[in-house]
Structure formats: structure tokens, C-alpha cells
Amino acid sequence: MVYSMTGFGRASCQVGDQLVTAEMKSVNHRYLDLTLSLPAGFVYLEEQVKRHLQSRLKRGKVTLYVSLAGDSYNRHIQVDWALLDQYLETIKQMSERAGIRSEKTLEPRDLLTLPDLFKTVEQEECSTRLEEGILESVNQALTVLIKMRQKEGDHLKQDVLERLGSLQRQSESLEQHAPKVVHAYQTRLEQRINEWLQGRVQLDEARVINEVAIFAEKVDIAEEITRLTGHLHHFQAILNQDGAIGRQLDFLIQEMNREINTMGSKSPDMKMTQVVVQMKAELEKVREQIQNIE
């Protein structure tokens, strides 16, 4: 199964009067890069969520954003009364030491400025339900994301297979044309020697055959064709495997590119050169496509 690294997933669930929404998107990346944004008070779920995502995703830059909307009835303000007593006692001691006498008492707004005196907490029952809602929304969004990546992956696979078929046909065309190039070289060589000799000396057939053999060896692409065909078959086999296959395919692309470049360096005529150029262009399109495969 081929999966793309590009996708989007969104899911929501209602918990009491609050709506929990999880949105997840992914794009190309060499490795699995996770960025999470969870509601305040639920950041402790981050590691659990990360492990869940890592169990189902292998590559891609993934961004997850979870939001809460609605009545926050489940929250209440908690006062640290012991800390307040310490503040008041400290203020009293400071006044006595500084010799300050004042009948003025602290205003409520003064208390609001005291650090760590107040904190907002979730009611335990509601917090547990919201936690379950967050995890469920994340899981559903992930499922939607994976389905979208799978659908895109199917399109990528089909396109790549068609291009691999084109590369196979082009390599076969080179294989069939190569012997004709050697024969044409022999014909031209004999014609030029005969024109130069003009019948004064008999043509040395053995020497001509030797020259043709040297030329044939220089332009021989049989080994490159064989290795390229093997890479194409291996490429197709990997496309039918499960799991993260993008890096394997990228390595094979490099190997195929090496064989095609070698064939290009051995190309003695315009037709073979044109086919090699077409193959390089086709292979580059395959390379672009597999950059998005997980």
C-alpha cells in the first residue's frame, strides 16, 4: 500500500456544552516531525498523543491543533488561602518594620496582582470526559488523514507505474537500436576506406572487423540495460509493499539515473541520445512523485 505524505484530517465531538475539535495536516518531510498544540490544562496528553501518531505514521511533517469551544462550566477558580495568609502577614511585618501606620485595607484588585494566588482548575469528572473527547477526536482526525494519504498514494502509484512502463519501453528501444548503430558504423568505415584506397590496395577485412569490434565494445549498453531492467522490476515490487517505502524508492532512482547517464555517455548517434534524454526527463518526473511517498 502506497501512502502520500500530504493530507488533512478533521474531527469533532461534543462533551457536555463544549465542542472538541482536532485538525491535523501533513506535508513532505524526510522523517516524522510532529508539532502538537493541545488546550491549556491538557498538555500532559502530549506524549500519549505523540506515541499514538508515531504508531500509525512513519514520515511527514505533521501538525495537530486541538481546540475547545463552548461553556467552560467545568472550570473553577481555586484560591491558595495559605499563600494569601502569608502575603497578609508579610505586608503586616513590612509595615511594622518600616513604621508605616495605615487603616487602609487591601482592595480586591490588589489581590489579583499577587503571583500564584489564583489558578483555574478543571473539575475532575469533566476533565476526564474532556480528556477522552480529545483523544477520540485526535484518533478520528488521524483516521481521516490516513485515508486521504492513502487515496493520494493510489494516484501517485498509478502515475509512477505508467512512467516506469515508459522507461521500460524506451530501454527496449535502445536495446533494439544499438546493433543497428554498430552495423551502420561498419558500413561507413568500409565506404570511407574504399574511397581513400580507390582500388589501389585490397581492403583488409580483418582490420575492419577489429575496428568494428572495438567500436561495438565502446558503445555496448547491454549491461546497463540489464541493470536498469532489474531496477525497474525491483521498483515495482517495492510499490506493492506495505510500510514506509519512499527512501528505498529514492535510492533506486539514483541507481537508475546512474545507468541512464552511462548509456548516454556511450551513445554514438542522435537517435540514441534523444531516447536517453527522454528517459532522463521521465525519471526526473518519477523522482518528483516519490518525494511525496511515505
What is the topological layout?
Elements: E1 7-15, E2 18-27, E3 32-37, H1 46-56, E4 60-70, E5 75-79, H2 81-98, H3 108-112, E6 118-122, H4 124-197, H5 205-219, H6 222-239, H7 246-266, H8 270-290
Parallel strand pairs: 3-4
Antiparallel strand pairs: 1-2, 2-4, 5-6
Helix pairs in contact: 1-4, 4-5, 4-6, 4-8, 6-7, 7-8
Keywords:
alpha+beta; Ribosomal Protein S5, domain 2; 3 domains; 4-stranded mixed beta sheet
Can you describe what's shown?
The protein is an alpha+beta fold. It has three domains: 7-72 and 124-151, Ribosomal Protein S5, domain 2 (2-Layer Sandwich); 75-121, no CATH class; 154-290, no CATH class. It is 62% helix and 16% strand. The chain has helices spanning 46-56, 81-98, 108-112, 124-197, 205-219, 222-239, 246-266, 270-290; strands spanning 7-15, 18-27, 32-37, 60-70, 75-79, 118-122. A four-stranded mixed sheet has the order 1-2-4-3, covered by helices on one side. Strands 5-6 form a two-stranded antiparallel sheet. A hairpin with a 2-residue loop joins strand 1 and strand 2 (18-27). The model has no long low-confidence stretch (mean pLDDT 83).
